[in-house]
Amino acid sequence: MNLYAKLLQRAEAGNPVRVGLIGAGKFGSMFLAQARCTAGLHVLGIADLSVDRAKAALTATGWDTDAAVAGSFDEAYRSGRTMLTENAEDLTRADGLEVLIDATGSPAAGIRHALLAARHGRHLVMVNVEADVLAGPYLAAEFRKAGLVYGMAYGDQPALVCEMVDWAKACGFRVVAAGKGTKYLPHYTRSTPDTVWDHYGLTPEQAAAGGMNPQMFNSFLDGTKSAIEMTAISNATGLVAPRDGLAFPPCGVHDLADILKPRAHGGVLEQAGMVEVVSSEERDGRHVFGDLRWGVYVTFEAADEGPKGDYARRCFQEYKVSTDRSGRYAALWRPSHLIGLELGVSVAAAALRGEATGSTLAFNADVVAVAKRPLKAPEMLDGEGGYTVWGRIMRAADSLAMGALPIGLAHRVKLKRDVAEGAVVRWDDVAIEDSEAVRVRHAMEAEARATPRAAQ
User: Fold this and answer.
1) C-alpha angle with apex 341: 336 to 342, nearest 5 degrees?
2) Which three-class secondary structure state does DSSP give residue 315?
3) Residue 139 lies in a domain
4) In this structure, what CATH number is given to the domain that contains residue 404?
5) What pLDDT shows up at residue 33?
């Protein structure tokens, strides 16, 4: 609360929050659409591999592009205009920059940009959840040491779920489950960029006309993106990952409290305090009534067991909270999320409060690469949403114990040995070149092995 009042104060003082955006794709463009309308925010610069794409993003989101673009960062700072560059490091070093947004989607790029931001004293909003699940615990620790904010992107589902978990705990409730909804059926794990549009009811031509990337959309469909987002939530909240991977139970909003509770009480969870994703499709392909495909949820219960919790449970009933049949478990949900249109909340929270809208705290969960089909050495893995592997959530301790290869490093990597369909790809199965991302990940794994606190 009061973020807008604080932004107004900065605007009135002639000292807006100066923010830099790396990546002028869909998420970045959605942010630009609202930043133009938000008092107290100044987009100091945009870094993209194509300056023309950055200009197109400004034009598409309502900016007077010719008037808005500055010739240098100094001019941008003085005039309130926006500098465009292909060099993310130049943007990160620009005088006056307070908050940097990484919206690239590349794990390696996200890690590089985060380390640059920490080195130059900039708060970071990590839209790039792929980078966060690959190395978030390491990166967050670097920002804490520097006295800076490393935060999730408000408007994206992980940050919104973290907010709901925080709400429940701040109210004194016990969180039972939290997550999101999506379109999912078990056979989607075998989907490839060649088959993805069939599941969305589109032709390849229609998808191409809409500028849709088949590999990205396939990541949403085959369960990889859901695993990535639930891992980010687990690492930020302490909620644990299912040992057998996400179950994707079909569930509408009014059944959340009945389904997302422990098996011992008639639900699907192996225990309380977990992340899980609900499907908008019944297993026979029928659509779920009251689905949560675009939204997020939390299920919770009174912290007190037995008679001591009766008063809270009676209040659930009196105030028409959605509960399971017993009245013990309750649910709250948000039916939609606005992605980059809400991102300004993260920027303002970091600059004006020194707070993150969700942030990685520990290495609790991981996303590992699983073979979509029999893979033969020396075949090349093609990463998230591709033809060779999909991403499965796993508890971090289990991932470390088996030497599993994280999905974020399973791109353009050659196999040294065959991997059976459905098997987890391991570090020892691949020939992987040295890189900053590989070194950071190895350092994070080494620290986790040395720390008994790594996920249960």
Assistant:
1) 75
2) helix
3) yes
4) 3.90.1210.10
5) 96
The values of phi and psi at residue 63, to 5°, are -80, 150
Rounded to whole angstroms, the Cα distance separating 278 from 450 reads 35
Are 392 and 325 in the same domain? no
Same domain, 78 and 129: yes
Give the pLDDT of residue 201: 87
Cβ burial of 296 (10 Å; 0-12, 13-18, 19+) is: buried
- What whole-number distance in Å separates Cα of residue 34 and Cα of residue 32? 5
Which pLDDT does position 453 carry in this prediction?
59
Q: How far apart are CA 224 and CA 384, in angstroms?
A: 7
| Domain of 439, in residue numbers | 365-450
Q: What's the confidence (pLDDT) of residue 306?
A: 81
**Same-domain check for residues 90 and 120:** yes
* Residue 105 and residue 156 in contact, taking contact as beta carbons nearer than 8 Å: no
Side-chain half-sphere of 194: how many Cα atoms within 13 Å? Answer: 3
User: Is the domain of 299 the same as that of 401?
Assistant: no
Domain count, the chain: 3
Q: Verify that 306 and 430 share a domain, yes or no.
A: no
Q: Are residues 150 and 170 in the same domain?
A: no
Q: How far is CA 314 from the centre of its chain?
A: 36
What pLDDT does 455 receive? 44
- DSSP secondary structure string for all residues of 241-276: PPTT-----B-BGGGHHHHSSBGGGTSSBSSSSEEE
User: What is the mean pLDDT of each successive set of 10 residues along the chain, which is 456 residues long?
Assistant: 94 97 95 96 97 95 94 96 97 98 96 98 98 97 97 97 98 98 95 92 85 89 97 98 97 97 96 98 95 97 86 94 96 96 98 97 97 96 96 97 97 96 97 96 95 57
Q: Cβ-count burial of 446 within 10 angstroms (0-12 exposed, 13-18 middle, 19+ buried)?
A: exposed
